[in-house]
Amino acid sequence: MRLSIIGAGYVGLTTGACLAELGHHVICIDMNEERVARLRDGEVPIYEPDLHDLMTSNIGAGRLFFSADTATSVADADAVFIAVGTPSLVDGDIDLSFVQEAARGIAKVIKPNCVVVVKSTVVVGTCKALREIIAEERGALDFSIASNPEFLREGTAVSDFLEPERVVFGSDDPRACAVLEQIYKPLADRGVTVMRTSNANAELIKYSANAFLALKIGFINDVANLCEQVGGDVSAVAAGIGLDSRIGSAFLSAGPGFGGSCFPKDTRAFAATGRKHDAPQGLIETLIEGNEARSQMLAERVLAELGSDADGATIAVLGLAFKANTDDTRESPSLALIPWLQKAGCRIKAHDPKAMMEAAKQLDDISFCEDAYDAAKDSDGVIVLTEWDEYRRLDLARLAGTMRGSLLADYRNLWLPSDMTDLDLTYLSIGRPTIH
Ligand code: NAD
C-alpha cells in the first residue's frame, strides 16, 4: 500500500519506519524543513533505540521517504496517517489545532477513496469533526476517516509497534476498516490481535488505557507515601499485590510521579472530556492533583533533610528525561522538581545521558555535567530522578567520596537500603523509611 504520515515526531517516524518494514511504501512528511533535511541525510532527530537501523534499512530498500511538502506527498496515498502533536490547553483540554491544520492541509490533495487515519491521541468526537473539516474543504470527495490510536512507549517504540499486544482501529466506514486490515495484515498474520471497532470506541480506548495506567502509578505512589510513614517497603507491597492476576505486576513501580508527553496531558484531556459531557471522572481529577503535587513534596523531603543548610546548598540532579532510554523531557518530574529546590536557594548541577540539550531549553541557572560523578563532585546532595542503567551501575562509594555532603535521594529506587551499608550516607528513597 502507499501510505503517507503527517508529522515525523516520535510517533510519526516510528510509525513510518515500521509500516515500511511491514512492506508498505511510506512517505513521512513534516512541516519542519530542518528535520526533514536531517532525515534525508540519514540522521534520526530523536533518540529512540533501534529506529536508526530500521530507517536505514527501509530507506535502502526504497520503501521509506521524507518530505516537507504535503501537497505532493499525499496525492497518491491509499491512506494518510495524521501523527501530529496534541498538546494541552491551559484548561486541560487538548489543543486540536495541529490535527485540524493537518486535515485541512491534506483535504485538497488526497485522492478519491483515500482513508484518513488519525493516529494522534484525540478526544472522542474528533474524527467526526475532522470529517466535516475535510468535507468542507473538498466538497463531494469520497473519502473515509478512521481512528488508529498508538500505544507505543518511547524507549521501546520500535518493538512496541512491531510486536504489539494489540492493534486497535475504529471506523464507521467498512471500506476504511478493510484498508486498515490490509495495512496491519502482516502483524495479524504473526498472531497479533487486531481489534476493529467504531470510531468513537477507538478514540475512547486510547484515553481510557492511559488513564488506567496512570491510575496504577498514582495508586502505588500513594501506597509508597504510607509505607514511608509506617515502616513498610513499597517494593514488597507491589510484589505482593501484583501476584494477584486481577491486579498484575506491571506499572507498580513507585517513583517521582508520571511525566512525559502522554500521561499528564491525556489524563487532563480525559478529565476535561468528562466535565464537558457531564460524566465527571473524579478518580482521574484526584489523580492529576496528586501527581502534580508530587514534585514539590519530593523536593520538600530533600529540603527538610538539608534543614537550614538548604539555602546555598549544591544539589546534583541525575536524570532529566521523564524516563530512561529517551531524550524526551516533556513534563519530566525532574524539570518540575528542580525549580522548587532553586526557590529554596539551592544551586543545581545536572546530568542526563541523552536529555541535557532538551532540558537546557527549559531550565535556567543549571550547570550541566559530563557524568554522574562530575555532577556529584562537591555537592551537598544527589537526587536520582531517571532510571538510566548507567546510574544503576554507579560505584556508590566513589560517588559518596566525591560529594561534600551526605544526602542521596534515590527517587527511582535504583538501590536497596542494604547497598548503603558502610557508606555514611543519608538515604532517601520512595516508599521505604529513610536511613541515616
Ligand atoms: P512530536 O511533537 O514528537 O511530533 C509531532 C510532529 O508533527 C512534529 O515534528 C511537528 O513538526 C509535526 N507537525 C505538526 N503539524 C504538522 C503539519 N500540519 N504538517 C506536517 N507536520 C506537522 O509528537 P509525538 O510525541 O510524536 O506525538 C504525536 C501524537 O501521538 C500525539 O497526539 C501524542 O499524544 C500521540 N502519542 C504519543 C506517544 C509518545 O510516546 N510520544 C505515544 C502514543 C501516542
UniProtKB/TrEMBL annotation:
Pathway: Nucleotide-sugar biosynthesis; UDP-alpha-D-glucuronate biosynthesis; UDP-alpha-D-glucuronate from UDP-alpha-D-glucose: step 1/1. Keywords: NAD, Oxidoreductase. Its EC number is 1.1.1.22. It catalyses: UDP-alpha-D-glucose + 2 NAD(+) + H2O = UDP-alpha-D-glucuronate + 2 NADH + 3 H(+). NAD(+) binds at D30, R35, T86, T121, E154, K265, R330. The active site is at C262. It comes from the Bacteria. Substrate binds at F151, L152, R153, E154, K206, F251, L252, S253, A254, G255, G259, K323. SMART domains: UDPG_MGDP_dh_C (SM00984). The keyword NAD applies. Signal peptide: none annotated. InterPro entries: 6-PGluconate_DH-like_C_sf (IPR008927), NAD(P)-bd_dom_sf (IPR036291), UDP-Glc/GDP-Man (IPR017476), UDP-Glc/GDP-Man_DH_C (IPR014027), UDP-Glc/GDP-Man_DH_C_sf (IPR036220), UDP-Glc/GDP-Man_DH_dimer (IPR014026), UDP-Glc/GDP-Man_DH_N (IPR001732), UDPglc_DH_bac (IPR028357). GO terms for biological process: polysaccharide biosynthetic process; UDP-glucuronate biosynthetic process. PANTHER family: UDP-GLUCOSE 6-DEHYDROGENASE TUAD. Belongs to the UDP-glucose/GDP-mannose dehydrogenase family. This is UDP-glucose 6-dehydrogenase.
